[in-house]
Design a protein that fits this description.
Chain lengths: 81, 297
Amino acid sequence: MLKDVVFQPTDTDATEFTVSYWKLDPGDAVSEGSELLVVESVDEKTALVVPSPCAGVLAEIVTGEERTISPGDVLGRIDAQ
Amino acid sequence: MSRDPRLPAWLTKPLGDPASISEVRAVLAAHRLNTVCDEAKCPNRAECFGRGTATFMILGDRCTRNCGFCSVASATPADPDPSEPDSVAAAAADLGLEFVVVTSVTRDDLPDGGASHFARTVGAIRSALPRAGVEVLVPDFGGDRRAVDTVLAAGPDVFGHNVETVARLYPVARAGADYRRSLDVLAHAAASGSARVKSAIMLGLGETNTEIETTLSDLAAAGVEIVYLGQYLRPSPSHLPVERFVPPEEFEAWGSRCEGMGFAWASAGPFVRSSYEADRAFARVGERSVDRGEQRA
């Protein structure tokens, strides 16, 4: 079953974010909480590590590097196991 | 191929739980208060809000100065809100704070620089939360010692004023401020003996190690007991650029150096900000009770 990795920053008042870089590639195994990717705020003050919502395999990178993202955007998908 | 991240790995934080900050947001909104956490786009905001704390910013959200590192809006401020001291106290009570930190914009437009407003705010907090510690982080009041005395007379446990950077960088980083004037504010507060005196500097603006050392020596000589060092992060492309990301081990070395220079407490790290975990620093340093003649539990 595919599970979305949704970008949900703690503070919705935060400024715009971009995907900085993915730490894993499609096909890599993940555990719940594994560090998937780093996003940075455009104000250059915050870099956040987005964790995997579940264990499984990184099935797909939906939002690539340097793409601008908003709260609620799907960043990738995990093939949950 | 991945591009280079703008921020080094040691400046990343885990994504938090949105639900964890809702209580603080609700209290701030209910009392219509500003925080320096939001205005300065602090990277620790989610963490601190998640712990149920925030640093109140009084005297409005517009500053009469325009420092090159700071994201607080520079514009003509509104008149101070006379109900703000009670609102801060009520919010602190709602949050159940045991240690309350209050800062402000710089108000060069006010005759006392906002000192009396600070004093009223400290007084309101004392009334609402008599057992809570109170820390103020004040502007330089234009070097007006009477304004400093006004704040000190209200009895804050910690009197903070940040020199922010080394003397050479004042013209670009703190236009309108004066390094020696800030040291005088700190020295005057320390000489009063009524509060722990605290200051902070940002690293990464282009200062040299020798200049950092000199600044720390100046702070120690002024009587500063608590010193914080953190990484400068640019709040927008129109602000001063980051000249260098200082590695955590260098911050650690500066922290050790500070302790060797006689500071009672030093906190140094990439994410250290002047009010970051202020309660813990104060708890470690201990309370000076000579003036109020009492010891809170």
